[in-house]
Design brief:
The chain has 218 residues and is α/β, with parallel strands linked by helices. The protein is 39% helix and 16% strand. It starts with a helix and ends with a helix.
Length: 218
């Protein structure tokens, strides 16, 4: 019986969120929203090291994409206040603001306005860092409005250099893109980059810069 109640409640929340997105709910119940716009990019990093290897990829990608004239908003999640999603469903998948009033309220408008979402992470136990995963989980509160019509990039670094090193991370990233109905437009995966000096001696920063230069921005 509890399972039946749970799914019935979830269905009601989805209906409410869809109605909100269609404009059938009062504007006062919704966070500020905007449609994806041209040349707007949001880069979300997950490293707690400002001079770390994945930060270098983020820096170089941003340098490249700004040469296209893109407006970039960078959110370094390890240095921001992001509360773990508790699955309370008070947001109704986007029908109402999240109950946690933290730095996601600064990030969300940028996410909703961006054409391109960039995930940048060190590989932690073969997945996203916990800091970045907190942000991804909180997409739930803007879920309905955040689906469709966007592109995504993955930038990642790891100590390991085996050919299977990034398999789990890439699978998670691709599944996220599939669920959100986003287009994956590129990845830079830095194998064997455990130190700043090792990645600086590699071609990966150049690859990140070139991806930023060539990725299509509306």
């Amino acid at each position: 019986m509890s399972d039946v109640i749970h799914f019935s409640r979830r269905d009601a929340l989805r209906t409410g969120a869809a109605a909100a997105a269609a404009g059938f709910m009062s504007a006062g119940s919704l966070p500020a929203l905007a449609a994806p716009g041209g040349k707007k990019v949001t880069v979300i990093t997950g490293s707690p090291h400002r001079r770390g290897t994945s930060f270098l990829l983020a820096d170089e990608f941003i340098r490249g994409v700004r040469e296209q004239g893109a407006e970039v908003f960078r959110f370094d999640s390890a240095f921001r206040r992001v509360t773990a999603c508790s699955g309370c469903d008070r947001c109704g998948l986007g029908a109402s603001p999240c109950v946690y009033r933290d730095d996601m309220f600064e990030l969300n408008p940028h996410l909703l306005e961006s054409d391109l979402i960039v995930f940048c992470t060190p590989l932690y136990y073969y997945g996203f860092s916990a800091q970045l995963k907190l942000v991804i989980d909180r997409f739930y509160a803007i879920n309905t409005q955040f689906h469709h019509g966007r592109r995504a990039v993955l930038l990642a670094t790891a100590w390991n250099s085996q050919d299977w090193t990034f398999e789990s991370l890439v699978s998670h990233y691709k599944t996220l893109c599939r669920y959100m109905d986003w287009e994956d437009v590129g990845m830079v995966l830095g194998y064997g980059c455990g130190t700043r000096s090792s990645i600086e001696a590699s071609d990966y920063p150049k690859e990140a810069y070139e991806l930023g230069q060539k990725v299509r921005i509306s």
